Amino acid sequence: MVVHLATNASLLNSVETFQRAVYAIHSFGMALPLIEWGFIFLPLLFHGFVGVWIAVNGRSNTSNYPYINNRRYTWQRWTGLIALVFLLVHVFHLHGWFHFHVWLDLVAHPLGMANFKPYNAASTLARAMGSWPWRIFYLIGVLACVYHLANGLWTAGITWGLWISAAAQERATKICTVFGVLLAFVGVAAWWGAIVTDPVKAETIENRMYPAAVEAGAVPLSVEKRTQPDPTVEAPADPDDAAEELEKPEDPEEPKTP
User: Fold this and answer.
1) Quick check: 147 and 75 in contact, CB under 8 A?
2) Which of 5, 11, 86, 135 is the most buried (most CB within 10 A)?
3) pLDDT of residue 224
4) Which spans does this entry mark as compositional bias, Acidic residues (predicted)?
5) Where are the domains of the chain?
């Protein structure tokens, strides 16, 4: 989550900075789905299922013992549930959950989901965040995730025996609080960057960057990862032909006869 929020916050620097960061992620090519599922989606789903089980079976006693640590336990459960719903909707909203054409054409796109195109990262993100209901939803979701992570590190440290004494827990509280505040700042910066970006200007910049990135081998050619119709190239069926099309110079004008 730290890397994801920092990458999105780079949009405040420039569209070019953000697009280059997204290109770096997608330069893994066919290995990217394995990385995403192995290190992001499956661990998150496992954590989500375990968290729901704990939230359902746990017992809050804040009414009898209204101490701050007891309240933090309750807030951890609630922010976990909010974060789980947020992440499921977030992935559906931007990526559609699955990339099968039948699923996208019959389910995701008719519902207004799967809006993000990695090779038009800033413009499609800005359009997806174009209405205030989505903006409010994302702000609440990001802040819930930040609290759940920062406070979760504190509770995990106790579970793992890293800070047991009262003094150690107090030091850990300060460290996790500073971490949470800094990450919240980065998260709000990422949220704000998506709101203030002009999608039309961003798309113009992305269309200029894409042919150069493909020609340099920075990213593989992909029609699905671009906003369609693609004004930079009429993508042929063969990727080699597409690369040649990108390199093809314009026909010189024939000299006019007097």
Assistant:
1) yes
2) 11
3) 83
4) 237-258
5) 2-246
